[in-house]
Amino acid sequence: SAHDLAERLDTHDAPLVLDVRTDKEWHDGHLPGALHVDATAIARGVDRVPRTDRQIVAYCALGNRSTVALSLLERRGHRQLALYPEGVDGWRKAGLAVSGDPT
What we know:
Layout lengths: L1 H8 L6 E4 L3 H5 L7 E2 L2 H5 L12 E4 L4 H12 L5 E3 L3 H7 L10
Parallel strand pairs: 1-2, 1-3, 3-4
């Protein structure tokens, strides 16, 4: 859930949050501290997702793009991958702050 992820982000072993949405979606608001790498870039083989011992938690709007992105990252050797299916809308509905929010 949004609150579970928010709590984990405040720990010493916080996951790397990966936003795989488009540039426009990113600029309309994203989870604080998230790394933005468009899912299409991941599909094209662009490797901007760092190798890390931390868990990588990916999200998009509905879960489709992030599921594909996680699968591609796994094939490339990334481990400790997780999906945050609620996306920015779920984060906002939980009353949590969104970075870059135009509202």
